[in-house]
Specification:
This protein folds into 3 domains: 98 residues, Hemocyanin, N-terminal domain (Up-down Bundle); 141 residues, 3-Layer(aba) Sandwich (Rossmann fold), CATH 3.40.50; 275 residues, NAD(P)-binding Rossmann-like Domain (Rossmann fold). The protein has 23 helices and 16 strands. Strands 9-8-7-10-11-12-15 form a 7-stranded mixed β-sheet, sandwiched between helices. It is α/β, with parallel strands linked by helices.
């Protein structure tokens, strides 16, 4: 790879404090003279390798994960190339530090750890100046991320920008998107977190959360600005609550490339994992009987993604595909007689007549709560997916009952963090005598098979697919993120499953290979966009791989030439 040449207009202190262009001690002697850096840096010129070694040694001196998170955030503020190179070289070790689970702690303490801005803060009382503020901050960027609430830790107000910033890092680290072309955004509409409202150091808007029409109008004002100024951008919605996630995605997905990670990202990586498992069992998606334990935004997103894939791949009707699912929430199986069923769940509601034996009495029309074990015994599922955060919800009796009616039970306890997982995969493996095909939402150590072999537990992590989905949509200038584009990316990921070569191997590739995996996903997405006419480029399908590689951002130092009219 040849060294890129950049024409840069910054000099001296302005250059050393610009994270995009700063090289620190890696500035060459020639560059130090050209940019007025002699005397502002110590004498010796370091290589990127030497800088990485120094930074890693400093990182290791931190004794806590939150301390390491703060150190890495500081490095990102100083030098992007060094930051991303260090992460790339220690990917498996450092992803949990900059992303889940450590980022959750950083978000919860955001106001007390605050040092500097890390994105765009659009606040409800300043809505009249939103366009001015938006243009001032974006200035040529073409990706947006924003949030509402953080799954697993609740309403964290303006601190939730931390998860948007972490997602933006993942897009660059694993997806290959130039970090100068992405921005983390928070729509600060207040908070209902009493701890934050009563905290004198809280840096967000100290007001109860806005809802209803005012909320919708504020979100729409932001989306219309994105559509007006960056019509080919990707708009990534992150951690929207269950009442808003589906309806906002539905409202905007036909008019812009909008992506909701909790619905579509979780759904896509779960689809990939299930497709790999179905490949092992040599069956079809539409042959499965699927229980979704937890009917929030993630559970419903998974359901819709799997349902749509059945329709697209197996050519069955939506009604027939819907009949393959049994959704369970905290009130039990979702049936017709269950009160206050959300509108977005109604197409998956089971008829009361199918569950007549669960009436509270022979003379009553009321249904008693239909528990998970009841459903497992009655329908003999082939797939059990947990998104409930109900720790231990997949009991030994549930798992053994499932295994009794299924040769290779497919069990995905996906709740995060690991302490909230529905079943420890080691126990599920033991209770099924090594028959289960397993994937989890958090990393777990291998389980032992009856023959003594280690069974690698696939980590059903959105980061294995969403950066590639986003990169594929962006490089193809797609006007939408269509279901067929997502399915194309999911099928490409599934095709790379180690289990397709060895049925007792992991259902998903190793997370350490995430950058290469996401590149393949991006190629598949862009190819599909071109084939279906969603793309805004005039490439041929056979050109996509080469074009994608040309657009792939990599953390390398370029050669700088001073130019007053260059980049700033």
């Amino acid at each position: 790879m040849s060294t890129p040449i950049f024409r840069v207009a910054l000099r001296g202190e302005a250059l050393l404090t610009h994270p995009r262009f700063n090289k620190g001690t890696a500035f060459t002697e020639k560059e130090r003279h050209a940019f007025g850096l002699i005397g502002k840096l110590p004498y010796r010129v370091n290589s990127l390798d030497e800088q990485c070694q120094r930074a890693y040694d400093q990182l290791q001196s931190q004794t806590t994960d939150i301390g390491k998170n703060s150190f890495l955030q500081s490095m990102k503020d100083q030098n992007w190339v060094l930051f991303y190179t260090l992460l790339t070289r220690h990917l498996r070790e450092l992803i949990p530090i900059i992303y889940t689970p450590t980022e959750a702690e950083a978000i919860a303490n955001y106001s007390h750890l605050f040092r500097r801005s890390e994105g765009l803060y659009l606040t409800f009382p300043n809505r009249d100046s939103m366009e001015e503020d938006f243009l001032e901050a974006t200035n040529g960027k073409n990706s947006g991320l924003n949030f509402e609430a953080i799954l697993g830790i609740g309403d964290q107000g303006v601190g939730g920008i931390g998860i948007s910033a972490a997602k933006s890092v993942i897009y660059s680290l694993i997806g290959g998107i130039d970090p100068s072309q992405a921005i983390a955004v928070t729509l600060d509409v207040g908070t209902n977190n009493e701890g934050l409202l009563n905290d004198p150091l809280y840096v967000g808007w100290p007001h109860e959360r806005i809802r209803g029409k005012e909320y919708d109008d504020f979100v729409d004002q932001f989306v219309q600005l994105v559509r007006k100024h960056f019509p080919h951008s990707l708009l990534h919605f992150e951690d929207y609550g269950v009442t808003n996630a589906q309806r906002l995605l539905k409202r905007y997905r036909d008019t812009h490339a909008v992506f909701n990670d909790d619905i579509q990202g979780t759904g896509a990586v779960t689809l990939s994992t299930l497709m790999a498992a179905v490949g092992v069992t040599k069956s079809k998606l539409c042959d499965q009987r699927i229980i979704i334990y937890g009917a929030g935004s993630a559970g419903l997103g998974i359901t819709k993604q799997l349902r749509d894939a059945m329709v697209s791949i197996d050519n069955i009707s939506i009604a027939e595909a819907n009949s393959k699912f049994w959704l369970i929430d905290k009130h039990g199986l979702i049936t017709e007689s269950l009160p206050d069923v959300r509108e977005d769940l109604k197409e998956y509601t089971r008829k009361d007549d199918e569950w007549r034996e669960f009436r509270t009495s022979q003379t009553s029309d009321e249904m008693s709560e239909i528990r998970l074990l009841d459903v497992v015994r009655k329908i003999q599922p082939t797939v059990l997916i947990g998104t409930s955060t109900h720790a231990g919800g997949f009991t030994r009796e549930v798992v053994e009952s499932m295994a009794a009616g299924c040769e290779r039970p497919i069990i995905f306890p996906l709740s995060n963090p690991s302490k909230l997982v529905e079943v420890d995969p080691k126990e599920a493996n033991d209770w099924t005598k090594g028959k289960a095909l397993l994937a989890t939402g958090s990393p777990f150590p291998p389980a032992k098979m009856p023959n003594g072999k280690d069974y690698i537990i696939a980590e059903c992590n959105n980061a294995l697919i969403y950066p590639g989905l986003g990169f594929g949509a962006m490089i193809s200038n797609s006007r939408q993120m269509t279901d067929t584009m997502i399915i194309a990316g999911a099928r490409r990921l599934a095709s790379l499953s180690p289990a397709l070569q060895d049925p007792d191997d992991a259902l998903l590739p190793d997370f350490g290979d995430a950058p290469a995996i996401n590149f393949e996903v991006a190629v598949a997405v862009a190819e599909q966009a071109i084939e279906e006419g969603s793309a805004g480029v005039d490439w041929k399908k056979e050109e996509v791989r080469e074009k994608a590689r040309e657009k792939l951002w990599q953390p390398v130092y370029g050669e700088y030439v001073y130019d007053e009219d260059g980049e700033k």
